[in-house]
Amino acid sequence: MIWGLGFFRAMGVTMRNMFRPTMTVQYPDEHLVIPERARWALAHKFDESGAPKCTACLICERECPDHIIHMTVSGDAASGKHIDEYRYELGACMMCGLCVAACPFDAIEMSHEYELATPDPDKLIRILLRDVDAASGKRAKEVAPVAAREAGAPGEPGAPSADGRGDGDA
Amino acid sequence: MSPLLVIVLRTLAGLGLLLLNGVVLIYMLRKVLAHLHLRIGPNRVGPWGVFQTSMDVVKLLTKEDFRPATADKWLFRLAPLLIFVPSFMAYLVIGFSPTWHFANLDTGVLFVFAVLSFVPIGIMMAGWASNSKWSLIGGMRAAGQQIAYEVPLLLSVLGVVMLAGSLDLKVIVESQAGLWLGFLPKWFILPQFLGFWLFAIAALAESNQTPFDMSEAESELVTGFANEYSGMRFGFMFLAEFSNLFVSCAVGTTLFFGGWLLPGLEHNAVALALGPIVFMVKVYLGIFCMMWIRGTLPRIRIDQMLSFAWKALIPLSLAWVVIFAVILKAVRA
Q1: Where do the structural domains in chain B lie, given as residue ranges?
Q2: Of B32, B39, B295, the CB nearest to A22
Q3: CA of A39 to nearest chain B CA: how many angstroms apart?
């Protein structure tokens, strides 16, 4: 190795870079595609008719480590629950996603809304639902709970392992 | 025209060139460095961001001229002038064509280097007067570095002076006219290849360019000697830095790359009329190479830098002067 050759190699590297496209993303004008599993502000899911899938079971409120989800619910399970208010303190949320993991009815999600800075602190407390009827637990039961689906529990209808084993053609 | 008017006009032309160079070079530096680093660089003010530096000048002009309470009042005010004026004076002898120059001195080479050796005094004064430890370290480094690198800078030029037999920049350019073997331009870089490298390294250090920008060293000294300055006083120092860059490259072009001459077209009237453009293109290519180096190499340590100057560069340039003198005498005898 000749002494000083590294200098010319380094100069070659930067000169190659000069003719490569820039990798700057000019943020307010351009946005990166964020990963599918990125966790940002909490949001509700709605069914085809536009009604929230939330059944007001209050598990997310109990599960939240920061105690930032507050639900006011009236009515009872027999006559149908009514959500007066679903309050979410965005400013205190640490986007851990435990509420989504705990939801038995797949009714909430960590959305991809990430431009959350605001000059108005009041905007950091969001009322996600106000004065709507909660979905009935029975109807929502048709969707399997998230945790059970991911574990692929045996006996679950439509689980691939159960189908494969029952086939005698092999 | 009266001689006084000529002097005033030439001074204003020089000042205009210096300011224009500063604005263009700062934009160029930011763009070149950005693209070397896969970035975009300024692109918001005007098309491709070309008005960015003009707006920066406006910003510097309208900024508060702040002096820290504990700074030395007179030295603090004097230092930017002492940095700016020598780098402006160095424009005096640069020849852009056989007829375009501010003044033609018989000792042009000597004058440029003599004048530029004032700059470290100003930098050290700025560092001392600011009464801040970062400024002081920057000023001290500048003094140590620029004194160390002035010696090889001057020695590396001696070979060219021997070849041309003159210290006059115009004579040096004109003695580079013609072709060797019918295709090689008679530029002094060919016989003086080692001398050119010594000159390039020493010029990088003299004009405070990375990898030798020890007196600024953004990441360790913030901005070194210019730390406590704001507004146009800082602007003067910044401008002087880029003007030194231009002067180094202009002197390098004159000494080693045939100044305003196009190889083989020395007696062509059109080529001579285009002399200033040819000269500027050569100078800007040199500046681009300096920026390219700046975007590539990391900053070395001050002790590495000084030991490189004293232990390698100065002995090497001394040896080269002696060897080249012997070779030249043998060839010409």
Answers
A1: 3-332
A2: B39
A3: 29
